[in-house]
Specification:
86% helix; mainly alpha; 93 residues; elongated
Length: 93
């Protein structure tokens, strides 16, 4: 239940924070938020496992998921900035 409340609160914050962002930033933030939700679930599973090795593996997996989410969001941001540069360089030609 705590995880559900956290995810609902996170969704509300993301939607409020998205009001003044560019579409590219909104997409990147949504991607990162989705990966973070998965990582949070893995962390919750790790805290409920009695086997310390399994808990460590779940925690490591959560870290890797967060890193992958950050990398994916950065790639979206980079792609958006590249397309904005192309558009601004071609305006008025």
């Amino acid at each position: 239940m705590k995880t559900v409340l956290k995810l609902a609160a996170l969704a509300c914050l993301v939607s409020l924070g998205a009001c003044k962002k560019s579409p590219t930033e909104n997409n990147a933030a949504a991607i990162e938020s989705n990966f973070d939700s998965v990582a949070d679930n893995l962390d919750a599973m790790a805290s409920n496992v009695s086997n310390s090795q399994a808990a460590d593996q779940l925690t490591n997996s959560a870290d890797k998921v967060r890193d992958a989410g950050s990398n994916a969001a950065d790639a979206v941001r980079d792609q958006g900035s590249r397309s904005n540069n192309v558009e601004s360089n071609t305006v008025g030609m």
